[in-house]
Write a sequence for this structure.
């Protein structure tokens, strides 16, 4: 029993790490631009598939970085040509636009790479379990969590230590003041969007090695990511981090006792949070609402 | 309201109803089939119900697919296990969705703006997972089957809406008419005007002492009730309910119909539904990549028709949509 719970808590933490990467990207874009990016899952899947395609030429380690970078470039292009035009309008419009893009992404991914799952090969070093007792923890899982930790740590350092990062955080609270101080808000939003998409692409490559590559793999992670953001509190990145891990573990533990409720439990958690603390665990009152 | 305006409205109403009543006579000549016309009505009712909240209260719900689906499952289950009366089953389905909307709405109205939209999206998925997992009751992934719409008995005459597609169309049109009339009546009442006041300026409405949360909650619940009614009709149309109609994709489709038709217009969403349903029907028969084209409809609608296809050329409407396309921040 204990080992079963341990197994599922570990599983929950790992899936939670995906939620965190995905939700942090969503959060970044939501906070600075007020855009709910429904296409985020599409970018994630594309990251995985692109890595699959370029891996034979440049190897696993390079693909891990190059693929998210390419996806981020595509994100930048879409932000510049379409999403930027909607910043001045009601958030409804960017939501619908990205919703449509999500359809196109999923369909195009299916058209190019096929509907059936593709295996993404990871280096042999990473496939062994870490020990005989902990047979369910392969090195790859540990590696994934490590990469997520580095990415998250890097993001938080960036937002705290660099000028650009501080601007992004400032823009979350008061974009008008930031603009009147002479900051190029257009450029900042583009950069921020690409940064969020980079995280999605990275999550896609990592997910490719753990699960298998499927056109819908990103869409399946989208809803839990929303829940993670709401539980943590819109506007707060540490909140999103905590929310992602929390729902991952909660879903993992529920799997032990009542498997068929493992998806629904996170929504119950969200309901409780909204009832007790509507702004979310770390949310600021009045932000984006 | 001037008498000229009232006259115009009456003519508009007469034209719309004449077209709807005559559908069985002109639709087949244009290459359409009866079920397509019925689908337009069903989704039109859904989009108009959503627009009660979106267009006339100014609050975006992106989770209405859930209540649409709840209405479908409620109606299907009622017909399967509880009753042989089609109207009663429909009412039970609509009540199920309405009650679920009332309960979740109480949590949701505590948030506003983008936040509100996100919470509605996330809550919408709960019912999808319940329908998906509780397969002993709902049929799970395969969907709910094993029920059929039952003929209507009027004492002296029995309307066989099961086998006669035209009669079923008129049944749906009658339910549609009742739903639309109720919503129209509510919007003309002081309650409806209060909703408009909240849409135009929530802060000022609050200063006037209007209980804003309560009103939004009521509007949300009413909207959920009628969208569930549409969902119930959808189940009757197909004699089937599948879990994907509970999904957020369904929600998105209902929203885009309302936007395509024009959110500031009462009848606009019906036009949006007609455009969308016909396009979807056409595309899915033409290409396997219909999803891409569907996505393209969303993208093009947002970029080129943000005021809807109706709002595009109608003078006078442009002014009223200004608040809709309001500037969210002073920065470029």
């Amino acid at each position: 029993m204990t080992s079963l719970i341990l197994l599922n808590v570990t599983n929950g933490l790992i899936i939670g790490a995906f939620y965190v990467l995905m939700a942090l990207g969503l959060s970044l874009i939501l906070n600075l631009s007020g855009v709910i990016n429904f296409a985020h899952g599409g970018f994630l899947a594309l990251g995985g598939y692109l890595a699959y395609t370029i891996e034979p030429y440049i190897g696993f380690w390079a693909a891990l970085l190059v693929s998210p970078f390419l996806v981020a470039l595509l994100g930048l292009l879409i932000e510049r040509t379409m999403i930027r035009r909607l910043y001045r309008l009601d958030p409804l419009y960017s939501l619908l636009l990205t919703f449509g893009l999500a359809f196109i992404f999923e369909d195009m991914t299916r058209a190019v790479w096929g509907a059936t799952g593709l295996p993404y090969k990871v280096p042999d070093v990473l496939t062994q379990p870490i020990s005989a007792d902990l047979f369910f923890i392969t090195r790859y899982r540990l590696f994934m969590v490590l990469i997520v930790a580095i990415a998250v740590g890097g993001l938080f350092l960036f937002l705290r230590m660099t000028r650009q990062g501080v601007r992004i955080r400032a823009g979350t609270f008061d974009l008008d003041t930031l603009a009147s101080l002479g900051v190029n808000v257009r450029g900042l939003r583009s950069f921020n969007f690409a940064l969020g998409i980079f995280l999605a692409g990275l999550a896609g490559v990592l997910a490719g090695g753990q699960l298998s590559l499927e056109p819908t793999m990103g869409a399946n992670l989208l809803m839990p990511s929303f829940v993670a953001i709401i539980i943590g509190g819109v506007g707060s990145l540490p909140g999103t981090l905590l929310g992602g891990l929390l729902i991952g573990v909660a879903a993992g533990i529920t799997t032990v006792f009542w498997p068929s409720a493992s998806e629904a439990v996170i929504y119950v958690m969200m309901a409780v949070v909204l009832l007790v603390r509507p702004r979310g665990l770390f949310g600021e009152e009045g932000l984006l609402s | 309201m001037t008498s000229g305006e009232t006259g115009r409205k009456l003519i508009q109403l007469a034209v719309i109803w004449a077209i709807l009543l005559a559908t069985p006579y002109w639709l087949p000549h244009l290459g359409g089939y009866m079920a397509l016309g019925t689908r337009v009505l069903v989704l039109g009712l859904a989009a108009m119900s959503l627009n009660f909240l979106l267009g006339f209260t100014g609050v975006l719900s992106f989770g209405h697919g859930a209540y649409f689906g709840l209405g479908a499952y409620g109606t299907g289950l009622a017909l399967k296990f509880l009753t042989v009366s089609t109207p009663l089953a429909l009412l039970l389905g609509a009540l199920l969705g309405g009650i679920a909307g009332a309960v979740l709405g109480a949590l949701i109205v505590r948030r506003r703006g983008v936040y509100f939209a996100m919470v509605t999206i996330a809550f919408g998925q709960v019912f999808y997972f319940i329908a998906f997992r509780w397969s002993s009751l709902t049929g799970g992934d395969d969907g709910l089957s094993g029920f059929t719409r039952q003929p209507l008995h009027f004492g002296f005459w029995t309307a066989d809406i099961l086998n006669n597609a035209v009669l079923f169309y008129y049944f749906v049109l009658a339910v549609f008419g009742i739903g639309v009339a109720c919503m129209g009546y509510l919007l003309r009442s002081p309650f409806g005007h209060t909703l408009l006041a909240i849409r135009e300026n929530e802060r000022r409405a609050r200063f006037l002492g209007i209980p804003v949360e309560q009103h939004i909650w009521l509007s949300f619940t009413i909207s959920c009730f009628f969208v569930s009614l549409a969902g119930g009709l959808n189940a009757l149309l197909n004699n089937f309910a599948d879990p994907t109609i509970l999904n957020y994709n369904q929600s998105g489709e209902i929203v885009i119909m309302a936007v395509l038709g024009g959110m500031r217009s009462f009848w606009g969403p019906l036009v949006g539904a007609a455009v969308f349903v016909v396009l979807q029907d056409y595309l899915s028969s033409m290409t396997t990549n219909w999803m891409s084209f569907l996505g393209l409809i969303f993208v093009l609608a947002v970029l080129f028709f943000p005021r809807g296809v109706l709002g595009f050329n109608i003078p006078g409407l442009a002014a009223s949509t200004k608040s809709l396309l309001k500037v969210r921040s002073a920065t470029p």
The CA atoms of residues 231 and 280 of chain A lie 5 Å apart. The mean pLDDT of chain A is 88. Chain A touches chain B through 53 residues (CB under 8 Å).
